[in-house]
Write a structure and sequence with these properties.
Elements (H helix, E strand, L loop, with lengths): L3 H19 L1 H4 L18 E3 L3 E3 H4 L9 E3 L5 E2 L4 E3 L7 E8 L5 E9 L2 E5 L5 E2 L3 E8 L5 E8 L6 E8 L7 E6 L5 E11 L2 E10 L7 E7 L7 E5 L7 E8 L6 E7 L7 E8 L7 E10 L3 E7 L5 E6 L4 E9 L3 E12 L10 E4 L5 E5 L7 E5 L7 E5 L5 E8 L5 E7 L10 E7 L7 E7 L4 E7 L5 E6 L4 E6 L7 E2 L6 E2 L4 E7 L5 E6 L12 E6 L7 E6 L7 E7 L5 E7 L2 E7 L7 E7 L10 E9 L5 E9 L2 E9 L6 E7 L7 E9 L5 E8 L3 E8 L7 E7 L8 E4 L5 E4 L4 E4 L7 E4 L5 E6 L5 E5 L4 E4 L5 E5 L19 E9 L2 E10 L3 E10 L3
Parallel strand pairs: 1-7
Antiparallel strand pairs: 2-5, 3-6, 4-5, 6-7, 8-65, 9-38, 10-11, 11-12, 12-13, 14-15, 15-16, 16-17, 18-19, 19-20, 20-21, 22-23, 23-24, 24-25, 26-27, 27-28, 28-29, 30-31, 31-32, 32-33, 34-35, 35-36, 36-37, 39-40, 40-41, 41-42, 43-44, 44-45, 45-46, 47-48, 48-49, 49-50, 51-52, 52-53, 53-54, 55-56, ...
């Protein structure tokens, strides 16, 4: 018999059931979600890349045994009934699919903790160590373009850069940055223009394929703003080079000249090409076999009547002149003129051929006497007269320019007897009477100067561009070259040789970086003092403390903070240790310590980059500075009172004065204000030593001493929250639980530890010298998370040079995150310091 409750439920449900049957045709078009049971609870929701974990450990209950387990990623291993995560993953999630006997499925999501690319520790652009101008041109709209050969700091290869000025040479910007290979070179040798289209040419070389040099031509049709390759000889094992380019003033046709090795027996032949469509397509209009390996077309120019003039180096290394005219095809004539012997020159610089009209031309070169000379023809090249000779073979020749008022100006370089002392001199030679008389002036002298290019300016103006190794010098004359003013340098910048040595996480959560920069100032090549700061977890950076001193070369070494809100940076300059302080979060800085050992300069000690800065619980500061050189050196421990008001030397190492050398490895302070110092001592046998001081560095107790004949010093000291001490060496890590009385090895020579991090939650991570990151498990074994730490993903980068990869250090960024400091070199960018991150998990 039905109960009263059952009767009531039946009465209430019948109308609904009937209604459902009546409206079945409506319901059939709707999807009704099926009820699912909740996923099985996990005992561990996150696992590391490289980790293997049994399902018994993974799940909080053994209910999983009622299901068949699978993984779409293939990470489930049925043989071991474990989740096996590959190493070298970035952070992601994976799923386990659990299927019951009756087909019910459950999905379980597990977080994989991998190594993720996070942020760049930005540094300022710095100036390179080469900027050699080889060519240039002026467009109809007044735009100036110069081609320079620079060294890309990342790989050390020489690249082509075109600099552009639209304000009559006052300011310059990079318009083209060319080197088409991952590893190789591109040398610009010539530029020309017609109206507002510009052309450059030279050669390129692929180092990866050990290939020959190859001819290239590039073009711009928008006043030099953008550039594309117009003609490249890509045939393997064929050597080719474009030495000169020119345009027709009447047709705008483009000409490129040089050589290739398609002559008999792979010898050189002269090559001259023509393009009638602004460099889009090309045809060869002249070749001549030379049957030697050192011959090419050196200069090509087009006269107003569209006659092509070219000067070439023949099989006898003589400079000869050919002229070409066009009827139904091009026809070239040997003018039977020898202009002298051809000498090789840096970056294939052979002076300049300047055509004034159909009969008059000037040639600046060192052909013949190997001295800078200027020749002129007034009969279309039939005869040439030398109208100027510097009179010294210790010269290099640049360009020649005939200005609108008839003044002849040429630029070159003179190397005085005994150079490099005295320095070479950039010279301007000038004639106002058609070459009958000449005056000579010096634009600049310097250890790496070289006079190169000339451009006509406005009115009677003329530009002179020269090399000063690091920069291109920029001069301008408003009186036809009689007097000159030096403008701002034309510089190429990257992150040249920049390197961050430490990242400090401040109590506010902001990041502070210290390190080494290349040359920051055009007028001062000394390395600057540098401190960077980020307030948004590394997304953007600004220079917190950045300056250059003409009398000192700086590097910043270490940083620390106290409980009073002060930040300190330790650096060096020559023999001096320097400490600067900020009390306003890095907005302003001042010196609190500038210390030079009192025996300097009578003893030529120089402070090494080995330096450590620490702050104890009472806000006292300590730093260790190493002086000397490999066979004779010592370490001073300097102590600063709170806020760095007063400083004194509290101790000196070696403690045993009979020993001749002590090298500092690390200096740390623990939570009990005990100072710990590790180093190497010798006289003459090398030993590694660990000291501690309980009285602020006045006296030191020797904790441990061992022979260091295998060069395995105590490079790094660390502590956990339980007071345990860790010593990282080059081939092992040891731990002491009794204040250093006894030690156990927690990492053996299987790995080569480079950086040790003990987190605030006592998790231990290690970065090795061969780019591995490991984590110590609860069972004492090491989990290999990643063995490609320094590799960067290709997306978003230019070519990254493999031999410049380096992994440097580990930092704790916050309670949940470890930062892995890597350093790499990227083409067109320079030297970059990057932080990768990995999460801290149980």
């Amino acid at each position: 018999m039905k109960t009263f409750l059952e009767r009531l439920l039946f009465t209430l449900l019948v109308p609904f059931l009937v209604n459902c049957q009546l409206d079945a045709h409506l319901q059939s078009s709707l999807s009704i979600p099926s009820l699912t049971t909740p996923p099985l609870p996990l005992a561990k929701s996150s696992v590391y890349s490289g980790e293997s974990i049994s399902l018994q450990t993974l799940f909080a209950t053994d209910e999983y045994t009622n299901y068949v387990v699978s993984s779409p990623d293939g990470y489930y291993d049925s043989a071991s009934n474990s989740l096996v995560i590959p190493k070298n993953l970035s952070s992601k999630t994976t799923e386990l699919i659990l299927t019951s006997a009756d087909g019910e499925t459950k999905k379980v999501t597990v977080n994989i903790l991998g190594l993720d690319e996070s942020f760049v520790m930005e540094t300022p652009q710095t100036y390179g160590d080469q900027n050699y101008p080889t060519s240039g041109t002026k467009l109809s709209d007044g735009t100036l373009l110069i081609g320079t050969i620079i060294v890309d700091s990342a790989g050390g290869w020489e690249w082509t850069v075109v600099q552009r000025s639209s304000d009559n040479g006052i300011t310059w910007n990079v318009a083209d940055h060319y080197q088409p290979y991952n590893e190789g070179e591109a040398h610009i040798l010539s530029m020309s223009s017609h109206l507002n289209s510009a052309y450059s040419c030279g050669y390129q070389w692929d180092s990866d394929n050990y290939d020959a040099i190859h001819w290239y031509v590039r073009r711009s049709t928008d006043s030099g703003l953008t550039w594309t390759s117009a003609d490249v000889d890509t045939e393997l094992d064929i050597e080719s080079l474009c030495q000169s380019t020119a345009t027709s003033p009447s047709t705008g046709y483009v000409y490129a000249a040089g050589y290739d090795s398609r002559g008999p027996g792979d010898t050189h032949r002269w090559v001259l090409k023509e393009s009638k469509d602004q460099g889009q397509t090309w045809s060869i209009i002249y070749t001549q076999d030379v049957n030697t390996y050192n011959a090419q077309i050196l200069h090509v120019r087009v006269a107003p009547d569209n006659t092509i003039w070219f000067i070439a180096q023949n099989a006898s290394s003589k400079a000869v002149l050919y002229k070409g005219t066009f009827a139904t095809s091009w026809s070239f004539t040997d003018m039977n003129v020898e202009l002298g012997n051809v000498a090789t020159s840096n970056y294939q610089g052979y002076g300049e051929l300047q055509i004034i009209n159909n009969t008059t031309a000037y040639l600046s070169s060192n052909f013949g006497s190997y001295s800078w000379n200027i020749k002129r023809t007034t009969d279309g090249g039939v005869t040439w007269a030398e109208i100027y000779n510097y009179g010294s073979t210790s010269t290099k020749v640049g360009e020649v320019e005939v200005l609108s008022d008839g003044t002849i100006v040429s630029i070159g370089t003179y190397y005085p007897p005994g150079w490099p002392a005295p320095n070479p001199e950039i010279k301007i030679v000038r004639s106002t009477d058609g070459g009958n008389t000449w005056s000579t002036s010096t634009l600049k002298s310097g250890s790496h100067v070289n006079g190169c290019l000339l451009f006509p300016g406005t009115s009677n103006g003329v530009h002179a561009i020269a090399s000063f190794y690091y920069y291109a010098l920029n001069f301008y004359s408003t009186d036809s070259g009689a007097t000159w003013s030096e403008r701002d340098f034309i510089a190429y910048t990257e992150k040249f040789y920049n390197e961050i040595t430490k990242l400090l996480v401040l109590p506010s959560g902001r990041y502070l970086s210290v390190g080494w920069l290349g040359s920051l100032s055009k007028s001062n090549s000394n390395n600057p003092w540098f401190t960077g700061i980020s307030s948004d977890k590394g997304k953007t950076w600004s220079s917190s403390d950045l300056f250059v001193d003409p009398t000192r070369v700086f590097s910043t070494v270490d940083a620390a903070y106290d409980k009073l809100g002060n930040i300190y940076v330790l650096g060096r300059s020559g023999p001096s240790a320097l400490v600067r302080k900020s009390s306003d979060g890095g907005q302003s800085w001042a010196y609190v310590e500038q210390y030079t050992h009192p025996t300097y300069p009578s003893e030529p000690f120089q402070w090494s980059t080995q330096g450590r800065l620490v702050v104890d619980q009472n806000n006292n500061l300590y730093y260790g500075a190493f002086y000397g050189y490999s066979s004779n050196g010592f370490v001073e421990i300097r102590k600063g009172s709170p806020s760095g008001a007063m400083w004194s030397t509290v101790s000196t190492f070696p403690q045993n004065t009979s020993n001749t050398y002590f090298g500092l490895d690390d200096l740390k302070v623990d939570k009990n204000n005990v100072l710990w110092l590790s180093g190497r001592e010798s006289n003459p046998v090398s030993e590694r030593i660990l000291y501690k001081s309980v009285d602020g560095g006045v006296t030191w107790n020797e904790v441990r001493r061992e022979p260091n004949t295998t060069s395995n010093p105590y490079e790094e000291i660390a502590f956990d929250s339980n007071g345990n001490i860790y010593l990282k060496q080059q081939t092992q890590i040891q731990k002491s639980e009794d204040g250093g009385l006894t030690w156990t090895t927690i990492m053996d020579s299987t790995y080569t530890p480079k950086s040790l991090l003990v987190t605030t939650s006592n998790k231990i991570f290690v970065l090795t010298s061969d780019n591995k990151i490991l984590k110590l498990g609860n069972d004492g074994s090491w989990l290999l998370i990643n063995d490609q730490v320094s590799l960067m993903t290709a997306q978003g980068h230019n070519y990254i040079y493999s031999y410049e990869y380096d992994s440097l250090a580990l930092y704790q960024l916050d309670s949940e995150t470890v930062g892995v400091h890597t350093h790499y070199a990227e083409a067109k960018v320079g030297h970059v310091d990057f932080i990768k991150t990995i999460k801290i998990s149980d």
